[in-house]
């Protein structure tokens, strides 16, 4: 059993301004589960999914590949799909990817 308490969460800046990640776990197939915190206006570039990915918006609003999602909204992507992420407001999202998601655009 793996437990990650909110009070112990460590936010790590990414290479993209305004985006931080708190890792829950890396999985055996190259993916990971984490919470991502995005400042309004921040942008994560277009990336390709080598496996499935699940995203749940915990707070705020984001745009994933042009689809606007608000608190409580969920998105599932299949292998081969691409999208970017834009924070329309300050937002927190849960992301669980099956495999790596290499960046393919800016």
From TrEMBL:
Residues 6-97 form the ChrR-like cupin domain. InterPro entries: ChrR-like_cupin_dom (IPR025979), RmlC-like_jellyroll (IPR014710), RmlC_Cupin_sf (IPR011051). Pfam families: Cupin_7. This is Cupin domain-containing protein.
């Amino acid at each position: 059993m793996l437990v990650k308490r909110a009070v112990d969460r460590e936010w790590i800046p990414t290479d993209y301004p305004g985006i931080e990640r708190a890792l829950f776990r890396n999985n055996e197939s190259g993916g990971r589960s984490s919470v991502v915190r995005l400042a309004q206006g921040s942008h994560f570039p277009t990336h390709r999914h080598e496996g499935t990915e699940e995203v749940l918006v915990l707070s705020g609003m984001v745009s994933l590949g042009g689809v606007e999602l608000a608190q409580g909204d969920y998105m599932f992507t299949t292998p081969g799909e691409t999208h970017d992420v834009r924070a329309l407001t300050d937002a927190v999202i849960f992301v669980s990817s099956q495999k790596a998601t290499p960046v393919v655009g800016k």
